[in-house]
Structures are given as structure tokens and as C-alpha cells.
Amino acid sequence: MFISSGYLIYLALILIIPIWAQMKVKGTYKKYSNVYNQSGMSGAQVARKILDDNGLYDVRVEEVRGVLSDHYDPRSKVVRLSSSNYHEPSAAAQAVAAHEVGHAIQDEQEYAFLKFRSSLVPAASLGSNMSIFLILGGFLFQASGLVLAGIIFMSFAVLFQFVTLPVEFDASNRAMDQLISTGIIRNDEEKQTKKVLDAAALTYVAAALVALLELLRFVLIFLNMNNDD
């Protein structure tokens, strides 16, 4: 069976991009997890200090299982840090903790992109779960209408990925500002912190790019179906 070179390039991209991003994140995180920060503060202490300095006393800091499972839960008002980041006084832990607190500050200040992303959650979730079934059904029954419906659903999931980018970049910028203004990091630690934050951002860029490539592929297939008709 003949496979075009263009399709092989496409397959290579959607496989290599996320793998490369994950390797970059894990490598950078592992490196700076073994570098102790100068403040001697654990990730939990860093998060608590920044939260308190911003008057977010009602936001809790909790430990969660897993590796790089750190996140901010806006519904429960909780910053959850993975065990190593919660307990360890590493350069990676303070960067990750400050980033998640950045989301808590966004939530408190009603950051526009964060609110927009939250509003997209139901449509994006439906798009992620339903789009591929509609598209496959359209291919199976040669029903271009089903394919189009699947593409529309998928577009919400892709939009969610792209709206996530400014949310994550802004949280990282807030993290750097807070770490510097509170004196938690010193000048020679700024570069280390930025490397951790930039590596983490790669995963979101990679996810958005792969999602866009997948959407464009189905759009082209849909257009070819209509041209054949």
C-alpha cells in the first residue's frame, strides 16, 4: 500500500513533537530537582508565602500523588503539589509551586483568558470525546455532514488548547515576578527558574500544535470528499 511522503512527515511530526517536549520537560525537571534553592524553602513553603503575600489566605496548599501532577483547582481553591515538589527545597520545586500559585492569582484577579478557558471546558470536553466518532462515522458511511460535525466539535478542543497557551505563559510570568519581588530567588537563580518554566511551557505548545495539525488533516480530507462528490 502506497503511503505519500507528506503523510509520513505528518505522522512523524505528531509523534516526535510531543515526545521531544516530554523529554525536554522531564530532563530539565530532573536536573533542577537535584539543585537546592538558596532560600531553603520547600515548594509548599514557597506557595504559601506567595499566596499570603497576595492576600490569598483562603487558598490551601496540599500534597498530591504522582510526578509533575501539580495543578491549581479553581473550584476548591487549592494549589496541589506533587510529593517531591511539596517537600523538597529544590530549584524545580520553587518554580513549579510559584507557577501554580500564578494560576491562583489569575483566578483571584479574574484573568480574562482563564475565564474564557473555563467557559470552553464543556464544549472542549465534548469535542475531545465525540469528534473522532463523528468523523470516523462520516468516513465509514461516506457522509460528509458527519465529518463536518466532527470537525466543528474538534475545533472547540483545539481552541481550548490554544487559549491555554496565554494562560500558562502568563502564570509563568507571574511566577517569576513573585519569586523575584518576594526575594525567594536571587539573581543567579533566575536563569534556572526560567529554564524550568520554559520547559514546562513546551508541553502546552506541543499539544496545541499537534491538535492543530490533526484538525487541518481532517479539514483537508473533508474538502477532498466534497470535491469527489
Automatic annotation (TrEMBL):
PANTHER family: MEMBRANE PROTEASE YUGP-RELATED. Pfam families: Zn_peptidase_2. This is Zinc metallopeptidase. The chain crosses the membrane at residues 6-23, 120-141, 147-167, 201-223. Keywords: Membrane, Transmembrane, Transmembrane helix. InterPro entries: Zn_peptidase_2 (IPR007395). The keyword Cell inner membrane does not apply. It comes from the Bacteria.
